[in-house]
Write a sequence for this structure.
C-alpha cells in the first residue's frame, strides 16, 4: 500500500553522526520536525537549527518551500539562517585575514539563498559589504568574494539599488578603469554596474559619468570578460535618453566597436555561448532601433532640403545638366522623369514619403543606393524605364515598400526579447550594414520581378515572394553580405515555387478520394512511428537553463524519461552537459502515473509568476509545465522551438493524448507523402479494373481500387 501523499521519506545528515531516516509529515510544523531531529542527536536549542538540501544549491527549507521535497531526498541539519547570518557578519568584521576570507567565501555561496539573504540584509549586511568595498583595503580573492556576495544579495530585489552611495559606484568603476585587475573582480564589477544601470534611472547617470565607452571597448579583447563588457554597453545604450543614443552610437562607431566585436568575438577562437549570442542580438536590435526616428518621420512636401534629395535622385539617374530653361517644359520633364523613377505621385513625389513607416528612412535608403552604388541604381532605373509600361518595375514604389518590409522583418523600433539569441553575423561586417542590406534586397526585388514577368497588378505578389526569399536567406545565418547574396541567388522564383510545392505537397497534390483513403490508412502507423521517436528523445533527455535575474551566471538542469517510460528523472547540473547524463546523477524523479496534465505558455505557473517585463513572446512560446499529484509542478523553458515540440509531444504521447505541435504536423505530412510516393510508384500494388463507360459531364470521376498488401 503506497504511503499517504503528505508523507515523504527523507534522510537527514549531521556531521559526525549517522544519518536519520524519517518519514516527514508535511502537515506537521517544520519546527516540530526539526525539534524531533535534534532530539535524535541530543542537540539542544532546536530553534537555532534549520534544514537544508544536502545536494545542489543547498537551499534552506522553509514552510513555503517544503512542498518541493521529494521521496528519497537527502537533507542536512544546519544552523538557522538567522544564526548563520549573525555569525558571518561578525566574522567578516574580524581582524584575522584568514578568518575573514573564509567567512566571505561562505557568504558568497549562501547569498544566493533567499531565506539567508533576507536575514543578512535585515542585519544591515549589505551596508557592511559596501563599506568594505569603499575602504579600498580588500584585494584579490577577498574582494572577489565580497563583490559576489553583494551582487547575489542585491539580485533578490529586497533592497533598492537607489540606496547605493556615490563613493561605492566610484570604487567599482575604478576597478573597471584600472589596467591590471583580476578577471574575477572585473567580471563582478561589470555585472554590478550593469545591474545599477538597468535597475535605477538615477544610477544610470552616475555610472555614465564614471565609465566611458572607450574603456569598455578595451575589455573586448579579453574573452573572459567580453560578455560582461558588451552587456554593460547594451545597458548604457538601452537606458540612455533619446537625445544621447545617437551621440553614443557615433562614439561606438568612432571607437570601431563593430570591427572589434567581429574580430574578437564573432570570429574569435571560442564558440559563442548563449549569453554572448543574446548580448549580440540586443546590440543588433538597439543599433537598428536608431532608425526608428527616420522611419516614423513623414516628409514635409514644403521642405526644400528634403525635396532636394528627390531632385538629386532624378539628377543621378537622368543627368539633369541639360534641363530645359522654360518652367513649363521643366515641370513636364520632371513629371516624366518621376514616372520613370517609379514614384506613385508623378507630379509631387514627396507625397510618397508621407506614410509612416517607412517615412524618410525609405528616401535615405534610395539616396544611399544612388550615391554609393550609382551604377546599380542607374541600371535598375533605366532598365525598367525601357520596358513595356505593363512590365516595368516601379523603383520608387518598390524601394518604399521594401524598406517597410525590412523594418518589419528586423523588428525596427521594438525592444529586445529576454529569451532571444537571434543575431545575424553579417550585420557586424559593415559600418553601413542596414543600407547595404537594402541595396542587396532591392536588386533581388528587381530580379524577382523579371523572373515572375510581373505587371503592376502583381506588385503585392512579388513583395510576398521577396519577403519569403529574404526570410529564408536570413534563416541560413549568412556570415557576410556576400554570403547573403549567394543564398539569395540560390532562392530564385522558380526555387521558391519548388520549395512551396514540396512543403504543401500533401495538402494540394493528393486530394482525390483514393489518395485520401490511402492517406487515412497510412496515418496511424506514421503517428505511431513519430510517437516512438518522441519517446526515444525523452529517454535521451535534454538540458534546460534556469532563467534567473542574471543570465550570464547560467544554471542548468537535466530531465530524461526512464527506459521503461514510467519515471521522469531530473536534477541540477553545474554546467551544460556535452552528452547524455546518467540516471544516477539526477536526484529527483516523478512517477508518470502521478502526472495529471501538461500546460503551455501563459497557463504555466512560472509564466504567471514572472514580471511583465520578462513575460515576452519568445519565452512564453517555449514554456511548458508538468502538473502532477499532489498539486505539484515541474516547470520548463525549452532552449528552442524544436526541443519544445519534442518535449510537449512526447509528454502528450506518454499520457495517451494527441500530439499537436507544428513539428508533429510537419513530420506527419512529410512522412506520409514519402510513404505514399513509395507505394504509388510500386505499380504492382495497384489494380486498375476495367474502365467504366465515359461520363462526359463528370470527367474527374475515378474508380481506382488500391491493393495495400
Amino acid at each position: 500500500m503506497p504511503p499517504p501523499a503528505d508523507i515523504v521519506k527523507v534522510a537527514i545528515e549531521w556531521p559526525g553522526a549517522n544519518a536519520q531516516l524519517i518519514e516527514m509529515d508535511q502537515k506537521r510544523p517544520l519546527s516540530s520536525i526539526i525539534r524531533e531531529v535534534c532530539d535524535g542527536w541530543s542537540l539542544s536549542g532546536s530553534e537555532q537549527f534549520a534544514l537544508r538540501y544536502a545536494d545542489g544549491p543547498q537551499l534552506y527549507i522553509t514552510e513555503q518551500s517544503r512542498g518541493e521535497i521529494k521521496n528519497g531526498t537527502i537533507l542536512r541539519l544546519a544552523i538557522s539562517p538567522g544564526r548563520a547570518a549573525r555569525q558571518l557578519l561578525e566574522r567578516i568584521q574580524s581582524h584575522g585575514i584568514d578568518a575573514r576570507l573564509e567567512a566571505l567565501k561562505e557568504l558568497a555561496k549562501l547569498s544566493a539563498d533567499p531565506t539567508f539573504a533576507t536575514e543578512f540584509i535585515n542585519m544591515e549586511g549589505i551596508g557592511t559589504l559596501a563599506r568594505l568595498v569603499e575602504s579600498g583595503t580588500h584585494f584579490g580573492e577577498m574582494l572577489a568574494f565580497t563583490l559576489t556576495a553583494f551582487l547575489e544579495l542585491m539580485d533578490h530585489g529586497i533592497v533598492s539599488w537607489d540606496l547605493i552611495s556615490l563613493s561605492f559606484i566610484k570604487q567599482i568603476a575604478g576597478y573597471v578603469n584600472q589596467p591590471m585587475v583580476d578577471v574575477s573582480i572585473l567580471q563582478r564589477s561589470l555585472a554590478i554596474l550593469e545591474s545599477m544601470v538597468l535597475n535605477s534611472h538615477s544610477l544610470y547617470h552616475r555610472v555614465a559619468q564614471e565609465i566611458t565607452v572607450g574603456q569598455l571597448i578595451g575589455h573586448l579583447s579579453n574573452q573572459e570578460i567580453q560578455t560582461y563588457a558588451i552587456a554593460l554597453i547594451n545597458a548604457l545604450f538601452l537606458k540612455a535618453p533619446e537625445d544621447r543614443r545617437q551621440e553614443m552610437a557615433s562614439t561606438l562607431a568612432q571607437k570601431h566597436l563593430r570591427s572589434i566585436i567581429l574580430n574578437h568575438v564573432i570570429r574569435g577562437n571560442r564558440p559563442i555561448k548563449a549569453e554572448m549570442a543574446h548580448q549580440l542580438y540586443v546590440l543588433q536590435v538597439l543599433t537598428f532601433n536608431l532608425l526608428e526616428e527616420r522611419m516614423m518621420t513623414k516628409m514635409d512636401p514644403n521642405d526644400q532640403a528634403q525635396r532636394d534629395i528627390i531632385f538629386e535622385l532624378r539628377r543621378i539617374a537622368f543627368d539633369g545638366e541639360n534641363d530645359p530653361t522654360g518652367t513649363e517644359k521643366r515641370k513636364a520633364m520632371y513629371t516624366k522623369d518621376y514616372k520613370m523613377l517609379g514614384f506613385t505621385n508623378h507630379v509631387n513625389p514627396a507625397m510618397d514619403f508621407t506614410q509612416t513607416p517607412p517615412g524618410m528612412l525609405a528616401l535615405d535608403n534610395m539616396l544611399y543606393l544612388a550615391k554609393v552604388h550609382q551604377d546599380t541604381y542607374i541600371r535598375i532605373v533605366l532598365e525598367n524605364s525601357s520596358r513595356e509600361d505593363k512590365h516595368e518595375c516601379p523603383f520608387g514604389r518598390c524601394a518604399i515598400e521594401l524598406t517597410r518590409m525590412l523594418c518589419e522583418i528586423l523588428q525596427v523600433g521594438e525592444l529586445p526579447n529576454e529569451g532571444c539569441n537571434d543575431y545575424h553575423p553579417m550585420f557586424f561586417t559593415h559600418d553601413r550594414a542596414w543600407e547595404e542590406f537594402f541595396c542587396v534586397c532591392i536588386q533581388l526585388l528587381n530580379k524577382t520581378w523579371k523572373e515572375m514577368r510581373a505587371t503592376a497588378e502583381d506588385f503585392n505578389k512579388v513583395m510576398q515572394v521577396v519577403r519569403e526569399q529574404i526570410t529564408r536567406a536570413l534563416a541560413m545565418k549568412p556570415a557576410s553580405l556576400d554570403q547573403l547574396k549567394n543564398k539569395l541567388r540560390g532562392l530564385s522564383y522558380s526555387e521558391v515555387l519548388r520549395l512551396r510545392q514540396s512543403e504543401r505537397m500533401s495538402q494540394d497534390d493528393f486530394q482525390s478520394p483514393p489518395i485520401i483513403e490511402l492517406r487515412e490508412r497510412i496515418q496511424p502507423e506514421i503517428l505511431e512511428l513519430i510517437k516512438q521517436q518522441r519517446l526515444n528523445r525523452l529517454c535521451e533527455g535534454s538540458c534546460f537553463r534556469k532563467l534567473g535575474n542574471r543570465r550570464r551566471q547560467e544554471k542548468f538542469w537535466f530531465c530524461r524519461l526512464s527506459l521503461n517510460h514510467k519515471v521522469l528523472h531530473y536534477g541540477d547540473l553545474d554546467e551544460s552537459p556535452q552528452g547524455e547524463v546518467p540516471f544516477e546523477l539526477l536526484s529527483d524523479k516523478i512517477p508518470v502515473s502521478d502526472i495529471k496534465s501538461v500546460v503551455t505558455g501563459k497557463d504555466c505557473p512560472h509564466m504567471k509568476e514572472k514580471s511583465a517585463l520578462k513575460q515576452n513572446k519568445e519565452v512564453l512560446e517555449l514554456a511548458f509545465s508538468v502538473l502532477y499529484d499532489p498539486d505539484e509542478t515541474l516547470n520548463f523553458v525549452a532552449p528552442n522551438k524544436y526541443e519544445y515540440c519534442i518535449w510537449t509531444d512526447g509528454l502528450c504521447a506518454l499520457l495517451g493524448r494527441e500530439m499537436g505541435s507544428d513539428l508533429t504536423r510537419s513530420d506527419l505530412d512529410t512522412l506520409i507523402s514519402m510513404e505514399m510516393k513509395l507505394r504509388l510508384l510500386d505499380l504492382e500494388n495497384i489494380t486498375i479494373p476495367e474502365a467504366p463507360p465515359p461520363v462526359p459531364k463528370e470527367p474527374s470521376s475515378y474508380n481506382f481500387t488500391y491493393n495495400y498488401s
User: Anything to note?
Assistant: Residues 502 and 561 are 35 Å apart (CA to CA). The first helix runs from residue 30 to 40. Confidence is low (pLDDT under 50) at residues 611-615, 683-709.
